[in-house]
Amino acid sequence: MNTGSTVSTEVDVAVVGAGFAGIGLGIRLARRRRESFVVLERAPGVGGTWRDNRYPGVACDVPSHLYSFSFRPKPDWSRVFAPGAEIHEYLRECARDEGLDPHLRLGTDMQRARWDGTRWRIATSAGIYRARVLVVAAGRLSEPRIPEIAGLSTFDGPVFHSARWDGAAALAGRRVGVVGTGASAAQIVPALAGTASHLVVFQRTPPWVVPRGDRAYSPDERRAFALDPAAERALREELFDEAERAIDARRRVRPDIDRLRDRALAHLTAQVPDARLRARLRPDYEIGCKRIVISDDLYPTLGRDDVTLEPSALQRVEKSTAIAASGAHHPLDALVLATGFWTTRLPFAQRIEGRHGLLADRWADGMTAHASTAVHGFPNMFVLNGPNASLGHNSAVYMIETQIDHVLGALDHLAAGDGTPLEVTVAAEEAYTREIDAMGADTVWLQGGCRSWYVDEASGRLTLLWPGTARSFRARNGEFDPRPYGQPPVGGG
């Protein structure tokens, strides 16, 4: 690999990111044995979200057997909801066992990607690549969002984001503040309680919480899955169908949304006997508007004597004192920021230049992409896990696999064509965007009375989620169709 030289490395496909999306596409490309490709990863290892998030208690909130590649099942998951380290190891095994090592370029940060009229010129921290096709698989949970809090940089103690966990920070026996009550905080808070001398949890908005029901798989269960792949596939399908049924609650269909809300309220009532605390923990927006937390131990932890729920945001910091919006002062020794990620304004868009300028400028009014994958003005470029390609009710891995199939279809079309680049028409992208907007208009994400990371702050559009079933996403986008690119199918017709 070139390092610092102006000489470029030529490949058919350059994939940016080595998380689930990048590894999944890499596996499929390696199995085809047709295209030359590299997977560019800025970190020293693969794994994406599951490499970066190493906080205490980190685990998936999608069942393990559904949160893995259909083309590479894992029969021996340890629990119903896998710990983060186990998922990370699964991805490392996938990359190693599928022969991706020769294609991985670790420690290689994409600094700039520019379409030069025929190919993508990709400048990285370790040299230049020229690729016929650019696939951006950088994800939407890769760039921590640090809130603007007055005095935060002067705090007299360790401060770090949950996705950049400081394992060297001494938290045992110390006063620790956790900013946020979302999915990460719901795992961190129970893990730290009892270790910290006192825990202060800053809650800007209470989450809806439903029971988790996690448990370990027995050795017999794991053995049975290994000996009978059909049984593992049947479980996966059962879990998938159960998750799919949850979409009606997000569409505000009754009685589905009422049942979901009642389930969460019953969980709150059963786990929080203190009426005053319970009132502070009851959301004032509709269930599902924000990401629903699944937890059996968050509520009991917030009721502990050594845990304080601060029912307002962290407003400012003065030396070792954290001051909440309520005016309450909390002396602390450390601060953990469980404050989420840049999800609707993806930082990589600042680094990609198409025919008419930066992707960030193209997305100034919110992310859009035809088939949630291709953007007008950016020929031979595909985005995985980007605009309207996530779910609020089912597994992201299913969506990623659907997009991978779409990209492989595009590569087949390019291979059979005359060398003309693939660029989706602006009309096709706009029509798809109107379709998405119509689908999402009456969902809980736009009508639920909350602000969430699913919705673009500037445009008010639902830009992160696919507002339908996972199956409908596959039916709509699983196969590549050249007609929105102004091209006929290969062979005519």
UniProtKB/TrEMBL annotation:
Highest taxon listed in the record's lineage: Bacteria
Gene3D superfamilies named in the record: FAD/NAD(P)-binding domain (3.50.50.60)
InterPro entries: FAD-bind_Monooxygenase_sf (IPR051209), FAD/NAD-bd_sf (IPR036188)
Protein name: NAD(P)/FAD-dependent oxidoreductase
Species of provenance: Actinomycetospora straminea
